Please model this.
Amino acid sequence: MSQFDFTVLDGGQVEKMDNIFFDSIYNTSKATEARIELANYFDKHPENALKFRNSYWRWFVLLCWAGFYKLSSDELITVINRQIPVAILLDIDVLRKLLSYFRLNNSEDDVVSFFKRVKLAVFESRAVLGILQNKEIKISDMLAELSQINNQGRDSIRIAEFKAKLRKLFSLTDKSSENYFSITADEAVNRFVALITFLYDVKMEELWSVVEKYDDLNYSELYRKLLNQPEPTTSMPASVSIQPENTIAPPQAFVNPPRAKKESETRSEKLKKLSYAEMKEQIENQFKKDAQGQFMNISEVLKELERLAAKYEDDHIRDLYIFNEADRKFEWNETLIKE
Model:
């Protein structure tokens, strides 16, 4: 049964459907079915992504990135190729998600080849960043302009103009969009520049080291280092030395999707803090297990629970995964999870 009719919705209709989406689809058993339905529609009608940015496309992006670690490699390539602009506007840190996916789903031997596929998907992306002078500007258009700037000597004025253009593209000219996208234009530009620069400049021999340590990295220092690397390390053009406007805070590991600002505080809080059961599901998806069903890297699981406990100021989160003295193994604290 179809969950979407793909008609043009006005603001009130989007808000009503938002309630249905978050209450009955997002993070429920219906999520996969809904994602497949939306994927099939946008495979047939990719030109409608911009028209439906506030509604069906936004819901599709949220579903894809909420289940990011479950995506097959081919599905991930498609998501990266098409969804980066709206993912960034939804305050999803694409770079950190990618590094986490690499660690969870690839070995050191194949991470380089998969990384190259991801890089190509971004560099050839036809995803629309925005509209300037009634013309759709795609990621590939901006990267072509970036290459031209590189080839002509990295003129500081042209770099400034390039950044200003990106800022305009990420600015929400449609006031209704402000109800659904919370990130500022400057923050969006910083995220986009960091992602592109990383893809340009990371050295293949250092890639697995970066992937393994992604959770301990000082992102501000890493971004500045990458943005200033003097020599290109791939066959792609050298990156422009573009500095972020502000210091980039360490990205959040998971998606906290913004709802319409008109929603009640209670409903907004529901999105900001996951339930214990949702935290369990999220960690189950994020970390691999051995043949006995035990997490292969328990220390990382405990570290993630520490991070969530600090984030939500809830000490009980640390007790969600405990050591059973009788069985001599770690297990979920189901009593606490069901509260």
Notes: Residues 222-272 have pLDDT under 50 and may be disordered.
